[in-house]
Design brief:
Strand content: 15-25%
Distance between the termini: 7 Å
CATH architecture of the largest domain: 3-Layer(aba) Sandwich
Number of strands: 13
Number of helices: 15
Bound molecules: uridine-diphosphate-N-acetylglucosamine, uridine-5'-diphosphate
CATH superfamily of the largest domain: Glycogen Phosphorylase B
Order of helices and strands: EHEHEHEHEHEHEHEHEHEHEHEHEHHH
Strand order of the largest sheet: 3-2-1-4-5-6-7
Radius of gyration: 20 Å
Shape: globular
CATH class of the largest domain: Alpha Beta
Length: 371
């Protein structure tokens, strides 16, 4: 019996977190699978943090990241460099994840090489090509060229059907982010003392990095934080600041050195999960955090006007608030002042998975490829 050669490709922090459980699952069956890992390193430090945590040593590292890189360069480099990787390792199937430019370009490159592609976290949509930018188009492209669509929820299955993907190519698996989160929360006790948080105060956790929030929106978010901290002496804000210079610059200009505001480096996944658990409220424009926080029973205010993850909004634990300073302040203040409102939003719900998504994906690959 020849082994199924599975090439997993990823490049950024969230892809790494969500693909790591799948790589580990493939590695559990060495008689069936030859697991090959290629990182584009669209992210460098933030990717390496995850590789270390999950103990993954890539077979290929394209090492493409450049300071303040642009979309053209990432796309061109991944598209070209993957060609050589395919020629060298001849995979039976390539797996990509989600909506980054790494995923879109790697999927297209595999399609050009006529290698079947599986899309993990397929079918997420806002149906607005500019929000989020460029992720909505990245995932539409990836879905268009993939042959196996691993959709996390019923909504994503329906979106794929609406996008004319043949139903027999769609598999509802749950989201591998829950596999990663459950594994990490269970196996890692993280020490947060280095942040210097005051245990007497309520912690608001903030993350923001979306391209469409660069400029005025991110400044508005920072102004809301300043106003909230000024008004509420019993809160503190912790913000692990994304390494993108378009985020670093305005955030450091507006928030550095302010009382009860902790600007810290991007956190390793284990301490970040612990911090989510210990926070009172989470403000974010992150996709992954929107999926993780509801299962930890944390209210999430999303700093965007649309989301491709409507499930937790429907349950009432996630609310879209946009990036208007006044609106953000009102919504957070409401949660701080009204225990009833807070309670409603902090129900623990988990529409995104049960921790077994990777196992399902591996089973599907096995069924389809075992000769
Ligand atoms: C990328 C993805 C986005 C995803 C996000 C997760 C695209 C177009 N964007 O956006 O979908 O939500 O990752 O975080 O695929 N940098 C470092 N070290 C790192 C990571 C980034 O220094 O480890 C800096 C570099 O200057 C780099 C810049 O951040 O050029 C931007 O990185 P890039 O991957 O292009 O964009 P993100 O905003 O991180
Ligand atoms: N995350 C992390 N450290 C941080 C901030 C986020 O490990 O300092 C994790 C978070 O738990 C989630 C993922 O990174 O799993 C989300 O990544 P990001 O917000 O960068 O990207 P997105 O999900 O928006 O694409």
């Amino acid at each position: 019996m020849s082994k199924i050669r599975v090439l997993t490709v990823f490049g950024t922090r969230p892809e790494a977190i969500k693909m790591a459980p799948l790589v580990k699952e493939l590695e559990k069956q060495p008689d069936v699978f030859k697991s090959i890992v290629c990182v584009t390193a669209q992210h460098r430090q933030m990717l390496d943090q995850v590789l270390k945590l999950f103990n993954i040593i890539p077979d290929y590292d394209l090492n493409i990241m450049k300071p303040n890189q642009d979309l053209w360069t990432i796309t061109a480099e991944v598209l070209m460099l993957m060609k050589t990787v395919f020629e060298e390792c001849r995979p039976d199937i390539v797996l990509v994840h989600g909506d980054t430019t790494t995923s879109m370009a790697a999927a297209l490159s595999a399609f050009y090489a006529r290698i079947p592609v599986g899309h993990v976290e397929a079918g997420l949509r806002t149906f607005d090509k500019h929000y989020p930018f460029p992720e909505e188009i990245n995932r539409v492209f990836a879905d268009a060229v993939c042959s196996y669509h691993f959709a996390p929820t019923d909504t994503s299955v329906q979106n794929l059907i609406k996008s004319a993907i043949p139903q027999e190519h769609i598999y509802k698996t749950g989201n591998t982010v829950i596999d990663a989160l459950l594994h990490t929360v269970e196996n890692n006790k993280a020490d947060l003392s280095y942040i210097g948080l005051n245990p007497e105060l309520k912690t608001i956790l903030l993350t923001s990095h979306r391209r469409e929030n660069f400029g005025e929106p991110i400044r508005n978010i920072c102004k809301a934080v300043l106003e909230l901290v000024e008004k509420n002496k019993d809160i503190q804000v912790v913000y692990p600041v994304h390494l993108n210079p378009n985020v670093q610059k305005p955030v450091r200009e507006l928030l550095e050195g302010k009382e009860r505001i902790h600007l810290i480096d991007p956190m390793e996944y284990a301490p970040f999960s612990t911090l989510m658990k210990e926070s009172h409220i989470i403000m974010t424009d992150s996709g992954g955090v929107q999926e993780e926080a509801p299962s930890l029973g944390k209210p999430v205010l999303v700093l965007r006007t649309t989301t491709e993850r409507p499930e937790a909004v429907e349950y009432g634990t996630v609310k879209l608030v946009g990036t208007d300073t006044k609106k953000i302040v009102e919504e957070i203040q409401n949660l701080l002042d009204n225990p009833e409102e807070y309670k409603k939003m902090s129900e623990s719900v988990n529409p995104y998975g049960d921790g077994l998504a990777s196992q399902r994906i591996v089973d599907i690959i096995k069924k389809n490829f075992l000769k």
